[in-house]
Automatic annotation (TrEMBL):
Its EC number is 6.1.1.15. It comes from Metabacillus bambusae. Residues 38-465 form the Aminoacyl-transfer RNA synthetases class-II family profile domain. It catalyses: tRNA(Pro) + L-proline + ATP = L-prolyl-tRNA(Pro) + AMP + diphosphate. Keywords: Aminoacyl-tRNA synthetase, ATP-binding, Cytoplasm, Ligase, Nucleotide-binding, Protein biosynthesis. Its main location: cytoplasm. It is found in: Cytoplasm. GO terms for molecular function: proline-tRNA ligase activity. It is an enzyme of class 6 (ligase). Gene3D superfamilies: Anticodon-binding domain, Bira Bifunctional Protein, Domain 2. Consists of three domains: the N-terminal catalytic domain, the editing domain and the C-terminal anticodon-binding domain. This is Proline--tRNA ligase.
Length: 567
């Protein structure tokens, strides 16, 4: 491709509103432009990288036995009404009406679509298992689109779905997909971890997320410092046990604690440890109030609360709701003398608190000498806190450390969540009608592109792994007005292209400083500069990754390039 003919609008300055490296570099290197919040165009260089990533995805999906198809983005509301998700999803699901006022969703995902397609055609166990996938634009009206294409409202996803007669068959395909994902992200040059995840509203059992390690990742990974254990912190179970102090139980005493609300303030004001404070957090779990107790040095894990109650919505109660439910302003609430319509549950660590402190459900007052099993009515003790660094690893080996990750893949064992609600059944070998067992497997293709940039860049720009680079070689004539430089550069461009390399030539009449700065920004693996020594048949080769550069005679050049780029 000739740069004078294509469209690579590079920027000298770092755009102010781009907070993360990949967003900055995609704008500066002319890979993307934002059209509106969360909506982006992928310019020619980004488009070529997307195609490279897609090609890797296709090869691995096909190798895992899946067949590619393409489903509609326009999804009739009836499908989502059958699964119930038309009602359970809120503003994130983009909806529209056609000219006949019929309602549609813009595809946020395709469980309903694929299930309705397969149920009409597959009736016998003999036709199972079946794995299908697509690579298509998804629409999700994110509340806070940010970080460029990392969290957009329109993005490219590979979504695969598998259908099975038995759970064993699903297990087999799940492993094949898991392996395919490991291959895909390795081939994209990513440093990633597969972590045990929370299946959330998807139901089903096993689920893993593929996380690219990055400080700007929104997800927190809890991993063991000695074993292979790694989980999304949302679901990492806590197996720690707590020794109970032997001190005598004291009387319950109400004390004045003027304006002392947080655990920090209370433990300082009363000169007690955080471990002996009881943190009370009021949630709305679907449509009822639940007061969750955790030890003062722990945090409530709202996903665990959600899973404990099998709820679809769990939200922190507002101040008004708190006053309504507990007859007390936030900051002084607690589990003692709580009205019947508030359920109180506690994390396991609470049972080790002796003579603790908690809110008195009276403004400006707390209780001391609190012994929960004596003074309050707890309906359940459960694992309700976030795991912390230093906790014992859930597999019993080593201690937990945290890392931030960008979720680029997510695989689920769905079970019959959709086949039952949408009546996708088959006749098993005994002639009995059964719901199909399903799996689903997603990769954020456009997010993967940005994640690669997050992990492959330096102070001068992007440093593409060769496997996904938009081009392999950047030929740069220093001065296109000098015939020997111009002719040699074009000759090399033609020869490299004929040898099968993908070549970008900067044939613009720009100053060499601009060309080199743009070349570093765009970040192709290899640069061949044709400058003053063109007459002597000498060019300069530069390796983008290492910064190493050296002069090479033209007749050794092809051999040298072959060594560096492989092929
Ligand atoms: O997408 C999945 C599960 C798997 C992931 C792999 C590929 C197939 N889908 C989970 N999820 C996430 N956000 C969503 C947002 C909206 Cl607005 C929606 F309507 C539905 C979903 C939704 O279902
Ligand atoms: Mg996910």
């Amino acid at each position: 491709m000739k740069q004078s003919m294509t469209f690579i609008p590079t920027l000298r300055e770092v755009p102010a509103d781009a907070e993360v490296k990949s967003h900055q570099l995609m704008l500066r290197a002319g890979f993307t432009r934002q059209n509106t919040s969360g909506v982006y165009s992928y310019l020619p260089l980004a488009h070529k990288v997307l195609k490279k990533i897609e090609q890797i995805v296709r090869e691995e999906m096909n190798n895992a036995g899946a067949s590619e198809l393409l489903m509609p983005a326009l999804q009739q509301a009836e499908l989502w009404q059958e699964s119930g998700r038309w009602y359970s999803y809120g503003p994130e699901l983009m909806r529209l009406k056609d000219r006949h006022k019929r309602e549609f969703a813009l595809g946020a995902t395709h469980e309903e679509m694929i299930t309705s397609l397969v149920r009409d055609e597959i009736k016998s166990y003999k036709r199972l298992p079946l794995s299908l996938y697509q690579i298509q634009t998804k629409f999700r009206d994110e509340k806070r689109p940010r970080f460029g294409v990392l969290r957009g409202r329109e993005f490219l996803m590979k979504d695969a779905y598998s259908f099975h007669a038995t759970h064993e068959s699903l297990d087999e395909v799940y492993v094949k997909m898991f392996t395919a994902y490991q291959n895909i992200f390795s081939r994209c040059g990513l440093d990633f971890r597969a972590v045990i995840a929370d299946s959330g509203a998807m139901g089903g059992t096993d689920t893993h997320e593929f996380m690219v390690l990055s400080d700007i990742g929104e997800d927190t990974i809890a991993y063991s410092d000695t074993s292979q254990y790694a989980a999304n912190i949302e679901m990492a179970p806590v197996i720690a046990t707590y020794e109970k102090s032997t001190e005598e139980q004291k009387e319950l005493v109400k004390i004045e604690t003027p304006d002392q609300k947080t655990i920090e303030e209370i433990s300082t004001f009363l000169n007690v440890s955080k471990e002996s404070c009881i943190k009370s957090v009021l949630f709305k779990v679907d449509d009822k109030f639940v007061l969750v107790l955790v030890r003062g040095d722990h945090e409530v894990n709202d996903i665990k609360v959600k899973n404990l109650f099998g709820a679809s919505v769990v939200e922190l109660a507002t101040a008004e709701e708190t006053i309504k439910a507990l007859k007390c302003v936030p900051g002084f609430i607690g589990p003692i003398n709580v009205s019947e319509d508030v359920e109180v549950v506690a994390d396991h660590a609470i049972s080790s608190v002796v003579n603790g402190v908690c809110g008195a459900n009276e403004e400006q007052f707390h209780f001391q000498g609190v012994n929960i099993e004596r003074d309050a009515k707890i309906t359940q003790l459960a694992d309700l806190r976030f795991i912390q660094e230093g906790d014992i690893s859930p597999d019993g080996e080593g201690t937990i450390k945290f890392a931030k990750g960008i979720e680029v893949g997510h695989v689920f064992k769905l079970g019959t969540r959709y086949s039952e609600s949408m009546n996708a059944t088959f006749l098993d070998e005994n002639g009995r009608t059964q719901p199909m067992i399903m799996g689903c497997y997603g990769i954020g293709v456009s997010r993967t592109l940005a994640a690669i940039i997050e992990q492959h860049n330096d102070e001068n720009g992007i440093v593409w792994p060769e496997s996904v680079a938009p081009f392999q070689i950047h030929v740069i004539p220093v001065n296109v007005k000098n015939d020997s430089q111009k002719d040699l550069a074009e000759k090399l461009y033609t020869e490299f292209t004929q040898s099968g390399y993908e070549v970008l030539i900067d044939d613009r009449a720009e100053r060499v400083g601009v060309k080199f700065a743009d070349s570093d920004l765009i970040g192709l693996p290899l640069r061949v500069t044709v400058g003053k020594k063109a007459e002597e048949g000498i060019v300069e080769v530069k390796i983008r990754k290492t910064g190493e550069s050296f002069e090479v005679s033209v007749d050794e050049l092809h051999e040298k390039v072959k060594q560096i780029l492989g092929n």
